[in-house]
Amino acid sequence: KSDTTLISEIKAGLLKKLSVEVILLPAIDLPSSAFYKPRKRYIADSLLHFLSSHNAGRYEEIVGITEKDISTKKGEIVNWGVLGLGSCPGEACVISTFRAGKNKVSTKEFERRMTTLALHEIGHTYGLEHCPEFTCLMKDAHGKMNLDDGDSYCKSCKKYLRDHGIITE
User: Fold this and answer.
1) How confident is the prediction along the chain (169 residues), in pLDDT tens digits per residue?
2) Residues 34, 42: Cα–Cα separation, whole Å
3) Distance of alpha carbon 91 from its chain centroid, rounded?
4) What are phi and psi of 136, to 5 degrees?
5) CB of 80 within 8 A of CB of 70?
6) pTM for the whole thing?
């Protein structure tokens, strides 16, 4: 199921912050091989592999957006629920609306959260690690949903992206 308004808002937010072309691809089904039955979640790492193979190098970066719960391995925890995951560096990232509080904030605020999440995960695909700057959107979530703390890259992260031709500001 596709939320075209949300996807349009994410696209607009990406174009506002990054010097990239954004192409919307048709929706595709999540691979059943990525489903983790015990927790009823999709393994985000498997989704990254799926997106990369589906992309087959056609696009510089590919962002998957889903409403399904996603997870990854974190330390000794085999199935840690996450908002998103991005290859660092790499070509694929995936974000999920599942944990972003869709029914707890206004539609506008939810769209801003999801755009911030997309910018964060795309930052990873371009090689940005987590940032220690509290207001930078590249900060580590540390297991909490902190998409309301800042929706811009800090000076250091902006410089990195500028040096790599991803932003021009």
Assistant:
1) 458 899 999 999 999 999 999 999 999 999 999 999 999 999 999 999 999 999 988 999 999 999 999 999 988 988 999 999 999 999 999 999 999 988 899 999 999 999 999 999 999 999 999 999 989 999 998 777 777 888 899 999 999 999 999 997 6
2) 5
3) 12
4) -80, 135
5) no
6) 0.93
The per-residue DSSP string of 114-134 comes to HHHHHHHHHHHHTT---BS-T
Closest CA to 128 of 153, 92, 95: 153
Q: Which two three-digit tokens encode residue 96?
A: 């999920």
Q: How far apart are CA 66 and CA 144, in angstroms?
A: 19
Strand order of the β-sheet with 77-82 is: 35-36, 41-43, 70-74, 77-82
Calculate the CA dihedral of residues 116, 90, 64, 155 and round it to 10 degrees.
10
Task: Give the amino acid at 95.
Answer: I
Task: Specify the DSSP element, H or E, that contains 13.
Answer: helix 4-17
Which amino acid, one-letter code, is at 168? T
Token pair in block for residue 98: 């599942």
* Cβ partners under 8 Å of residue 163, min gap 6: none
